[in-house]
Specification:
Blueprint lengths: L6 E4 L3 H14 L6 E4 L12 E3 L3 E3 L12 H7 L12 H11 L8 E2 L15 H12 L2 H4 L16 H10 L7 H10 L1 H4 L15 H15 L3 E3 L2 E11 L2 E11 L2 E6 L5 E4 L9 E2 L18 H9 L7 H4 L2 H4 L1 E8 L3 H10 L8 E4 L6 E4 L14 E7 L18 H12 L10 E7 L25 E3 L14 H16 L15 H11 L2
Parallel strand pairs: 1-2, 1-10, 2-6, 5-13, 10-17
Antiparallel strand pairs: 3-4, 7-8, 8-9, 11-16, 12-15, 12-16, 13-14, 14-15
Helix pairs in contact: 1-9, 1-15, 2-15
Length: 523
Amino acid sequence: MVKKFNAYLLGGGIGSLAAAAFMIRDGGILGGNIFILEAKPLLGGSMDGAGNPTDGYSLRGGRMLTTDNYECTWELFKSIPSLSSPGKTVFDETMEFNEQHKSNSMARLVDSRRAKVPVSSMGFSMQNRQELLKLTQASEDELGATCITDWLSPEFFETEFWYMWVTTFAFQPWHSAVEFKRYLHRFMLEFSRIETLAGVKRTIYNQYDSLILPLQSWLAAQNVNFLVDCQVMDLDSTTAEGKLVVIGIHYQQSGESKTIAVKDGDLVFLQNGSMTDASSLGSMTSPPKKLTKQDCTSWTLWEKLAAESPDFGNPAAFNSSIAESLWESFTVTIKNSAFFDKIAKFSGNQAGTGGLITFKDSNWLMSIVLAYQPHFINQPADVQVFWGYALFGDRVGNFVPKPMSECNGEEILRELCGHLRFDLDIVESANCIPCRMPYITSMFMPRLRSDRPLPIPHSSKNLAFISQFVEIPDDVVFTVEYSVRAAQMAVYEFLNIDRPIPPISHHDKSLQVEFKALVKAFK
């Protein structure tokens, strides 16, 4: 039965796109009754990917995917048609691609001598093992708002495991012990193969081209309304039976102030907060601008709502310390194959099979990854693109005497070539675009359970939250899966959909997985 009401999705990231798809596919909502309001010119939110061979390509980030987890994500993309493989779904083409290009990293860590570090051992002492076990067995109430450093000794942060785990998932020592524990449980399968990244699955192109575009195309074919360059400024609300009811949406578009009247029965989904808010791009000659909270657009609505009820969480737990949530990435466009050829010879991996290469002694803790080429749909055959990032952008480089945060693209390439012992002429044709992201790991900040609202708070009648800043027991933030699962939970609850949501796979309860992890910890 077709249900007749409007749904307004505030923010055009993967969470909103997924929610729209679930409403149409499983909820019987007409696409024409769904409105997605996005502040930027393009949909996709943090899952971006843009550029051309002349000006250079740019990705803010790349996301790890696995088929052993990501249950809701793959269930969704099993029903989204591929744009490049007629008759196949996005899931089908992605699995076929990964059968042909399997991950088996042979140079996961590289030291200051440019030697490949042996990584079959995690490098744990008995004290390290005991501390890690204690952390993984502690309850979330015991862990509370503590940091990882509150549970692990200083020498733990020099182990091979730490360097591999944190550069795979982007943790910092001062981040939340709860989130670290959740990752250890959710990705216990990856613990025993973290040195090869064998469990990692990749999309054919970057994730904007491979996931966002097909999903957006399918939604467009269902007549979903996309309002881009549309900044939501405020919400009007009232209270009914002790619950908040949104009755109006104020937004600006093309310099005009406009209002949507939210009628009885209509639904509103808010993407509260953004990990890429206030991000900025640099160039070969200029570092990225240092934007701050004053330049943000995604936190204000959530802050207003949180001031009305503790049910709506506490955004200040996540957006109050840029120094603890900042890191910087860079995308390099290069017009000859020499760099890729030398990396393949050094690492033993062809592009698309090796995953991250981390320079463990780098002051910046720099990593790079060379994806299968082409990495963009419009990328010519004679152009290569690779991506990298560094966790400690506030430190002076090993080869460039300034912090990464003050470096332009040319200086970042100089630092990279220093670690690789490559002559600079190998990147003579390269265009490196740095990207500063002040809130990129804000969801890892130490927090209490009450700091994140439920997808549908108890005190809300028609407002749901879809983002990395909602509370989903046992699942992990900084993943596509978290946004998609939040969307599915909110849609199914609002629409009373009698269909099971794919459960979280508890590999940590498998004796075989636990045994493999134990063996790995003692190597």
